[in-house]
Amino acid sequence: xxxxxxxxxxxxxxxxxxxxxxxxxxxxxxxxxxxxxxxxxxxxxxxxxxxxxxxxxxxxxxxxxxxxxxxxxxxxxxxxxxxxxxxxxxxxxxxxxxxxxxxxxxxxxxxxxxxxxxxxxxxxxxxxxxxxxxxxxxxxxxxxxxxxxxxxxxxxxxxxxxxxxxxxxxxxxxxxxxxxxxxxx
Length: 185
Description:
- The structure is a single chain.
- The chain is mainly beta and 185 residues long.
- Helices cover 10% and strands 52% of the residues.
- The chain is built from 1 helix and 11 strands.
- The protein has one helix at residues 2-19; strands spanning 29-42, 47-59, 65-70, 78-82, 85-89, 100-105, 110-117, 128-142, 145-148, 157-174, 183-184.
- Strands 1, 2, 3, 4, 5, 6, 7, 8, 9, 10 and 11 form an 11-stranded mixed β-sheet that branches.
- β10 (157-174) and β11 form a beta hairpin.
- The longest helix has 18 residues, at 2-19.
- The termini are far apart.
C-alpha cells in the first residue's frame, strides 16, 4: 500500500512538472549587466538607500525586434545572483497602472536600461566584482515582440540570461542632488 502511494505521488509530481511552462534560453537578445548600484541619498534628517541594475540588451537576431519594459516594478521580477547570494528581485507588488515602453532594435542594435530594484536581502550586497547571474523572463507576444514579464502568469516564456562577472558600486547623493562618482564599495 505504501509503495502504491509513493508511486502515485511520484506520478502526480511528474505530471505537474511536465505541465509547467518550458523555459528556453533566448537566442534573439544578448544581456550584459553593466553594474549593480547601491545609491545612498543623504538629507539632514535621514538616509535613503535604493538599488538599481544597469544593463544593456542587444538584438543578436537578423530581424528588427521590439523589447518591451514596464513601469510597474513587479512586472520586472527577475533573479539576480551576485557571488554566492541570490536575490529575488522585484517580487510581488501592486501598482495602479503599468506603462509599457517599446525599445525597437534593428539587428545588431542595443540599448541601455536602468531597473529600480527591490529585494529583501539587498542590504547584504557588498562591493566589488563578482560572478553574476541575471535571469529576466520574457514573454514572446509574437515573432518580433518580446515583453518583460516575470509575474508568472504568462505563457510563451523565454529567459534572457547573463552569466559573467559584474561590479557592485556605491554612489552618494546629497539633498541638493550633487552626486559623487561611483566607486567600488
